[in-house]
Design goal:
Length: 370
């Protein structure tokens, strides 16, 4: 059995008192430059930071907002250029955590007192300390020791990582916090997928058999069976993945009775820069995939998703957006305590999710309509 996925948020009484004060309205005129610190992250982590930038842009529409930290440039840079809420990227690592003290000193001299507000979404003592040394007018951090606004989150309450980050917007008084990840992508990046799919018969369902780590992947035999079931339901399956996953996509295709669409095998752009896959997701009725950057990329396009979660926590890092469905067994060992080591129960958290269950989710969403 399944149900539509809902992001777990903090109880409203956790932030009600901040909504009454609306600190951002009082300091708004003083805030001209904002640096939002997000530590290094893969594609999915990067996409899940977008709502935070949107919410701070709503509070400070005239301010310049910078992404401070790092991301996988190869996978994220083009998408970053399409985000309307961020005005630039500033690379930052803490000394000993990617930079030498000499590199940090150069960074410090350039940015000392240059920001009116620094927003620290991580709250880890050492990197937060080095950010605090930049001496902005205001410092807002999940680490209350350094923050101008003192608050303590209840560690016993388990919430989505996006809810935790956006609590910082609530501290400044924003009430209607949005978790919506969708942004408008320039047509030049959408056209290749739209032109490519004209040669095929829709409607389409995108399937993502790969993931950043093999231990997060639903068995490829099951993806092949699912692809054939999609054909039986009247959909044309599109196998989506990066260039390094091309062999995996071909293996899944070889296990299918019906020939799927494999864009990366026909046009290298679809495997080189994830921004071009957004057009594939926008043209699809639905995306089904493992917990990976591609699944979160689909939510950025506005496409609904069915997520197959095994060793990672769907409660903490499930997909953003509406009308999504998640499969997550939540075994006693979940989230995974072995990770990249040999699983002692043969990855039951993934293998116990059946093709029939996923097909039922597709049928349910089909009844809801596009």
């Amino acid at each position: 059995m399944f149900e539509l996925y809902q992001i777990k948020d903090y109880p409203s009484d956790s932030f009600a008192r901040y909504s009454r004060r609306k600190a951002y309205a009082r300091i708004g005129r003083k805030i001209k430059t904002i640096a939002v610190y997000k530590s290094s992250g893969a594609l999915g982590d990067f996409i899940q930071s977008i709502p935070l930038f949107r919410n701070f842009k709503r509070m400070f529409p005239e301010a310049k907002i910078y992404y401070l930290g790092s991301f996988q440039k190869k996978h994220c840079e083009t998408i970053f250029q399409n985000i309307p809420y961020a005005d630039g990227f500033i690379e930052y690592y803490r000394p000993g955590g990617g930079w030498s003290f000499k590199q940090y000193r150069s960074f410090f001299k350039k940015h000392y007192r240059k920001f009116d507000l620094i927003v620290d979404t991580q709250g880890k003592f050492v990197p937060t300390f080095y950010l605090w040394l930049l001496n902005p007018k205001y410092f807002l951090s999940l680490n209350w020791f350094f923050s101008h606004w003192i608050f303590v989150l209840d560690s016993k309450i388990k919430v989505h990582v996006v809810a935790k980050m956006n609590f910082l917007a609530r501290i400044l008084g924003l009430e209607d916090v949005s978790f919506n990840p969708v942004i408008d992508i320039k047509q030049m990046y959408l056209s290749p997928a739209q032109d490519y799919l004209k040669r095929f018969q829709g409607p389409f369902i995108a399937l993502i058999p790969g993931a950043g780590h093999p231990y997060k992947m639903w068995p490829k035999q099951m993806f092949a069976q699912l692809g054939d079931r999609c054909v039986e339901m009247g959909f044309s399956p599109i196998l989506v993945g990066a260039h390094v996953e091309k062999e995996l996509l071909l293996e899944v295709a070889a296990l299918m009775r019906n020939k799927p669409i494999i864009p990366v095998a026909d046009d290298p752009r679809f495997g080189q820069d994830p921004v071009y896959s957004i057009g594939l997701f926008k043209s699809s009725f639905l995306t089904i995939g493992n917990d990976c950057g591609g699944l979160h990329l689909a939510t950025l396009s506005g496409c609904r998703v069915v997520g197959i979660y095994g060793p990672t926590s769907a409660e903490k890092s499930g997909p953003l957006g509406d009308n999504n469905i998640i499969f997550y067994r939540g075994l006693d060992c979940s989230p995974c305590k072995w990770f990249r080591q040999q699983c002692q129960i043969d990855r039951r958290c993934l293998r116990d999710i059946s093709v029939d269950e996923v097909v039922s989710a597709v049928q349910h969403l089909a009844r809801l309509g596009k």
